[in-house]
Amino acid sequence: RALRQVADGDYDQGLEGLLALMKSDRGFEDDAARKTLLQVFDALGADHPLTVAYRRKLFALLY
After folding, report:
1. Contact by Cβ (8 Å): 23, 62
2. How many CB atoms are located within 10 Å of the residue 2 CB?
3. What secondary structure letter does DSSP report for 28?
4. Residue 40: predicted pLDDT
5. Are 41 and 56 in contact (CB under 8 A)?
6. pTM score
7. Across the chain, how many H-helices and E-strands are there?
8. Of the candidates 44, 38, 53, 49, which has an alpha carbon nearest to the alpha carbon of residue 9?
9. Which residues are CB-contacts of 39 (< 8 A; sequence separation ≥ 6)?
10. C-alpha distances out from residue 40 to 6, 34, 45, Å
11. Rounded distance between C-alpha atoms, residue 33 and residue 19, angstroms
């Protein structure tokens, strides 16, 4: 579902979904949620507000 949201341009909801998946099952599909988050960050660009906000959330989740 999160991938579909990202594909449809609903990045905020898609990123939230990917973070939720990481919280519930970090190893799902060989860490696919984290890898997808990083791909979306690359696509949006390092200075995009969503990238900045969700990198912080990802970092907090990982550490």
Report:
1. no
2. 20
3. T
4. 95
5. no
6. 0.86
7. 4, 0
8. 44
9. none
10. 8, 10, 8
11. 7
